[in-house]
Design brief:
Helix content is 57%, strand content 14%. The protein is of the alpha/beta class and 282 residues long. Strands 1-3-4 form a 3-stranded mixed sheet. A 3-stranded mixed sheet has the order 6-7-8. A hairpin with a 2-residue loop joins strand 7 and strand 8 (252-258). The chain is elongated.
Length: 282
């Protein structure tokens, strides 16, 4: 699949929520929540890009931002890092604000909302329920059970989590109804149903160089060890330069691997394959 520029789409209801926030005095909270959600999804996209996958669309939803996709064909360790990237980015932001308060206590009054929202996104997204990152991590950890059993367990856990959040809303009705909890439980309910159907997939990185070659393209040569992997090598890919890997093994020149040959290898090999093994195949 060709690598596309990252796009930002907006759900129609997103504007409605923004307008309602403006009239109810919650516009600042709404804007901060959107920024925190974008940070979360961009962290996923950046981590996926490092492993050769592209998330080309982020959608602003009434309840935040989402990037749909399944990374089951990526290695487990890489998948885990991609899934954790979003929550960890929010956690780092929250800790950054705490450090700021330590150095400049007077900033607390202006940044406490942003810090609490960032920490909330970190904690909530680790709940073991779809479509949250915690639910995807749970499915990843359950993968030894098989695809069908893993989906079933994830769906059950998601239903239980949704029921728990709905119970919080029910209890709150005796004092001050927490409508956010109700909306969140509905989202988790639909997420549980979605976990049974499965999600989409991230696309492998490739480039269409036809137009680039017409106008001319600078070459980028990178000297690299044959012991490095395909997953490591793709970090050097760039739209602005054509990549040529100069591969050395045991301190001696081995061969050159062009960008086209690199993509051809990615069609049949996984990201953990050594460059030396790729050259042997070629």
């Amino acid at each position: 699949m060709e690598l596309k520029k990252q796009r930002l789409r907006v759900h129609p209801l997103f504007f409605l929520v923004g307008i309602l926030s403006a009239f109810t005095g919650g516009l600042l909270l709404f804007v901060i929540a959107v920024i925190a959600a974008l940070e979360h999804e961009c962290a996923h996209a950046f981590a996926a890009r490092r492993y050769g996958y592209t998330l080309d669309t982020i959608v602003l939803m009434p309840y935040g931002a989402v990037v749909s996709g399944d990374i089951s064909d990526m290695g487990k360790r890489q998948s885990l890092w991609v899934l954790l990237a979003g929550p960890l980015a929010n956690a780092a932001t929250a800790l950054g604000f705490v450090a700021l308060w330590w150095l400049f206590p007077e900033t607390y009054a202006y940044t406490d909302v942003a810090a609490h929202l960032s920490f909330s996104l970190f904690a909530v997204n680790l709940l073991p329920a779809y479509p949250l990152d915690g639910g995807r991590i749970l499915k990843l950890l359950l993968s030894p059970l098989g695809e069908r059993r893993a989906k079933t367990v994830c769906a059950v856990v998601s239903f239980v989590t949704a029921a728990g959040v709905a119970a919080v809303f029910a209890v709150s009705c005796f004092s001050s109804p927490q409508w956010t909890a109700l909306a969140f439980s509905v989202m988790l309910l639909f997420g549980a149903l979605g976990s049974l159907r499965g999600g989409g997939s991230y696309g492998r990185i490739s480039y269409s160089r036809e137009k680039s070659f017409l106008r001319g393209l600078e070459e980028r040569r990178v000297v690299i060890s044959a012991d490095q992997t395909l997953g490591y090598a793709i970090r050097y890919l760039s739209r602005e330069k054509y990549l040529v890997l100069v591969v050395y093994e045991n301190g001696e020149f081995c061969a050159e691997l062009t960008e086209g040959e690199l993509f051809a290898a990615l069609e049949t090999a996984d990201y953990g394959t050594r460059l030396g093994n790729v050259l042997t195949r070629l």
